[in-house]
Structure prediction request, 365 residues.
Amino acid sequence: MDIQIENLCKRYTSGGKTINALDDVTLTIPANKIFTLLGPSGCGKTTLLRCIVGLESPDSGEIRIGGETVWSGGNNIYVPPEKRGLGMVFQSYAIWPHMTVFDNVAYPLQTRKTDRAEIRRRVAKTLSFVQLEGFEDRPATKLSGGQQQRVALARALVAEPKVILFDEPLSNLDAKLREETRKDLRVFLTELGITAVYVTHDRIEALALSDLIAVMRNGRIIEKGTPRDIYFHSEHNFVADFIGRTNLIDGVVKSREADATTVECPLGEVRCASQADIAPGDKVVLSLRPEFLHIAEDGAAPEDGTANRITGRIDSLVFVGEAMEGEVLVGDTRLFVKVRPDSELKEGDAVSMTVTPAHCLLLTK
Ligand code: ATP
Prediction:
């Protein structure tokens, strides 16, 4: 089932100040995809999720789920949460500690007065799906954090909803478990072929889990695309910076040829991937991701006729295990760089870096 959101607005007033938690949001969440709302704290992600579920009433706009209008300001329609056919998994697993795993998962069916044999069949099927067979009689509290999270997922899945909503469901897990559960969750959801709307402020989680990401800021959706689109071809400074560490450098377009655009900036003249909507004289922001700035270990950059060459001096270098992270000073401009963890480079070394035009992204918004 797809979800269509049109011109949705939600304002809160607190302490005499009005906050546009949702500022004219229009969005289509396609059926059977994992769709993530990503953005910093306070950007309106949870408010949008709560409006979709029906726990919050917007001020204006419309929400349709699978073609059915569940909320409309203009037509005065409000379908209550229990009639929207959605499942939900929250940040705190919200499983009942005094109940067994079976009772936790069975709960949504019991409240619907489903037949006992049918409850047993569906709970068994769902527990097998989340790989918790044999845990039926275990008290919910005698489970690990990851297992509790899977109970919460099973409880949301047992009623076989067409859409499932997640509000930061992994944020209570430690880093390693979060990574494992994220992988499992993607497999589960993809196998189920269900529409999943996932809220997070964690960019790695969004990149690893999603089919599509919508980046929110100040109550608005500012960019939408696949994880790769958002990472490699973002249009906004804010998005490029939020989705992964990058170097943002102000510049002006000097010339445009068929295969590249040349930008004048504090690093010198940099050849960038060509972009149709850019003309000489335009102000732009150049985005250079550290992983694409190749530092030559012997001081000489490898021969590549098309690559940009930038020289500077290493200002800092920190060993972080899988890499060395540091800063190179090019004149007054500081570039964040990554180097192999076994590199011999040290602070104060003069370095020559190359970066191909394809990895020099021009941002215009
Ligand atoms: P987080 O990641 O911190 O949960 P979020 O992106 O989910 O943030 P929301 O919880 O949707 O953000 O909040 C959006 C804005 O609306 C914030 O500025 C928040 O302070 C405000 N807000 C949310 N709920 C209320 C409320 N009940 N009363 C007043 N302001 C609210």
Q: What stands out?
A: The chain has eight helices and 21 strands. Residues 12, 14, 19, 21, 39, 41-47, 201 surround adenosine-5'-triphosphate (CB under 6 Å).
